[in-house]
Here is the input.
Amino acid sequence: MNEIPGYHRRYSVPVKVGNVTVGGDAPVVVQSMTNTDTVDEIRTAIQVADLARAGSELVRITVNNEDAARAVPRIRERLDDMGIDVPLVGDFHFNGHRLLRAVPACGEALGKWRINPGNVGKGSRRDPQFTEIIELARDMNRPVRIGVNWGSLDQDLLSRLMDENARRAEPKPPETVTRDAVVVSSLESAERAEAIGLPHDAIIISCKMSRVQDLISVYQDLGARCDYPLHLGLTEAGMGSKGIVASTAALSVLLQQGIGDTIRISLTPEPGGDRTQEVVVAQEILQTMGLRSFTPLVAACPGCGRTTSTYFQELADEIQTHVRDRMPEWRDRYPGVESMSLAVMGCVVNGPGESRQADIGISLPGTGEKPVAPVYIDGEKTVTLKGDAIADEFKKIVEDYVERRYGLTTEDR
Here is the structure.
């Protein structure tokens, strides 16, 4: 991505997670997580499939008890039967060592395990339980994400650093020490894991915070101190626009600095909302930054007094929906189509110029303008649409363009 001004990807060791590579030269990976009861293997498999079809390249599932652990291999089998090869990530807290020992088939069915140093065990049990789960990962050849979360931070470590800070001639603010503790917890845990025998290239780190500036500070520190792949995500981001804006603000800063190898947008779903929204948001962050392409994006003007008709808004929404609906087929048949750009503009002020900049653009008439809609393809005006069938005609133009530009030739096939 050398064409992006100021962008230079931080080096990280590549880690294989099933058929996906995280870190190294691999593109930033999109991850998501189910919110079904893992014991309900049918609903969980269906949601994993939905997330994978939406573009999630890793899907994490909760493994919180023995029934859930026993369901994991069956979920994997159901996904395989559906032709869904997305790697599963097992989310373990408190009792992961016991579950993986009792149900080894669970560990084998997972592409990666996630553990939290803050709750892998307390007091004298912490090191033995951490050691046990790392030994199991080593023996099963499974990578591990060491996922620190400031809401469940190792309190013994935090107390130790707070005590050390209190003895300093100029103590740091408590919030700074907390951020330091999150980073130290992840790095010390990774060091212990390697000492136990887990390979360096089988470790991914995350340090989840819920405030934007805290997350940026922690990952800047972490990125400068290690070459492990880093999983980015704002924990408890929130619902709706708040969660989207907060996640975008935090991750965009870090990604622009080349920090981050896999991301998840932890949105609280609206009641009855679609879980796949977090996948779409993650993709759109990466695509609007120019880091990856997933689906053609539609540029559209916001509207003003010149666009009292809502037709351009309706057409923009219809075209964006059409593109997303067609992508599962397009992706297989038309390599490169995900980078196509479209524009649906609402008046003569910026409409022709924006439309020329897109691969395909249409400039609809504004208030008082002549009721015609010129269409531009590769910067050239090609046809003018009018009447009641503009939407269908424009979609046909898009379909023809996709086949002509991205279709495989006989020799390619």
The two ends are 29 Å apart (CA to CA).
